[in-house]
Amino acid sequence: MFEQDTPRHDARHRVVIVGGGVAGLDLAGALARDTGLAVTLIDLATAHVWKPMLHSIAAGTRASAGVEVPYVAQARRHGFTYAAGPALDIDRAARTVHVDRFVLHGRDLLPERRIAYDTLVLAVGSVAAPFGVEGVEAHARHIDTLIEAQNFQADLLPRLVEAAHAGRQLRIAIVGGGATGVQFAAELLQMADIAGGYGLNDSRATLDVTLVDRGPRLLPAFPETVSAAARARLEGLGVHVRTDVKVVAVDEQGLRLDDGAIPADMTVWAAGVQAAPLAKSLTSLTQDQSGRLCIDRHCRSVDDPAIFAIGDCASLTPQGEERPLPPTAQIAYQQAVYLGRHLPAMLAGKEAPPFRHRDFGALVKLGEYDGYADLGKFGISSGVIRGRLARLGHEMLYRRHQMRLHGRAAVLRLWLADRLTSSIRPDDRVAKGD
Ligand SMILES: Cc1cc2nc3c(=O)[nH]c(=O)nc-3n(C[C@H](O)[C@H](O)[C@H](O)COP(=O)(O)OP(=O)(O)OC[C@H]3O[C@@H](n4cnc5c(N)ncnc54)[C@H](O)[C@@H]3O)c2cc1C
Known about the structure:
Layout lengths: L1 E3 L9 E5 L3 H13 L3 E6 L3 E2 L5 H6 L9 E2 H8 L2 E4 L2 E5 L4 E4 L2 E3 L2 E4 L2 E4 L2 E4 L3 E2 L8 H4 L6 H21 L3 E6 L3 H19 L5 H4 E6 L11 H14 L2 E3 L4 E5 L2 E4 L2 E4 L2 E4 L4 E2 L1 H5 L11 E2 L12 E3 L4 E2 L13 H19 L14 E5 L3 E5 L9 E3 L1 H19 L1 H17 L4 H4 L2
Parallel strand pairs: 1-11, 2-3, 2-12, 3-6, 12-23, 14-15, 14-20, 15-16, 22-24
Antiparallel strand pairs: 4-5, 7-8, 8-11, 9-10, 13-21, 17-18, 18-19, 25-26, 26-27
Helix pairs in contact: 1-3, 1-10, 11-12
Bound molecules: flavin-adenine dinucleotide.
């Protein structure tokens, strides 16, 4: 096995970040740009995508090509090293990360190797949780990664066309009534509307979407008024919403419930959250019930001072609260900003202020149909805004992320380019399927 390291003449402190998602890629750029640290970013993929877009990529309402950020380009631009391949394990005694071969289009491009670190930051994110339900792995689709979203989309469109031509419905069941499931249901309907515009007759009537949750309402993290409004909106669009439903198994026929069944041609599992497999496998580090790594108020592992964890794979319960912070892009972003700012001082043995989470409320977007923003945490009495403004807020989260990755001027140009492209080109996502 290869040893991969920063060159011997380079005496800089080696920070290795595993996971180039919302948190990890932001942090890699910040540390490489603004500090004298030698930064290496390991990711199993070749390009980063803003994960809150995956449901629209899966539905086919957004093309992934225009939003992918290649890691090599980002590394070159900001001055960090990109190491491609899935991290398999960590040797805490030797301070190395074991990275598997990197295979692209069936070819071995990089060998299995060990990458040495002085400080390790884990930012590997999360995946949906099957809760021990039988058949989830074998029969349900996930939309947790770009590949999964692209695969779903590639399968969805031909099936929709076949169903329309055969005069039958394409039945899709989504398990999980949180933000991912709710937003995905709306994007599917929007995709059907777009397909209708391309001459696919009755595309909306062909698509039969059922959204189920075991709880009493959708969007449990939002105020009840938002849950009720989102449900009414989805039902108005034609989605069958079923709450208080217990799924006991998933099979070729769809969902088996404790008191019946929901037939489906495609099942998407968007319920629950657990740490990504690498984080879960690190059992020598303290984890919470979801396998997320327990960190202190400086985002450092409670067990190992050389290891930090941020984003969805990290579990931090703020002082005075009972539950850990939720796995959201907002928190991943804030933790990346925090470590980018304070890690160099911490490594130099200086005192750093503790991480403080700022709650900017929650946003959910129902395609182009509607949106809700819960601003209660700001002390705004009415609490919730709805419609275009809320959808704009959702867009702004992404633009802020882009700004961190590319800089303010580049984001303005990207935004202008997006506007121009959408105004002069036909809406060809569904036709091209890319
Ligand atoms: C469909 C969907 C919609 C969402 N919508 C919203 C939303 O509207 N608002 C919101 O706040 N949050 C939303 N979320 C949640 C949000 O995306 C996450 O909270 C956020 O992405 C967490 O950031 P992260 O950096 O911790 O992980 P991620 O962004 O998931 O990044 C993890 C990275 O680690 C890499 N990785 C994983 N394992 C390995 C390994 N073994 N080796 C190497 N690399 C590895 C992955 O390739 C990935 O690049 C949504 C999530 C999904 C799935």
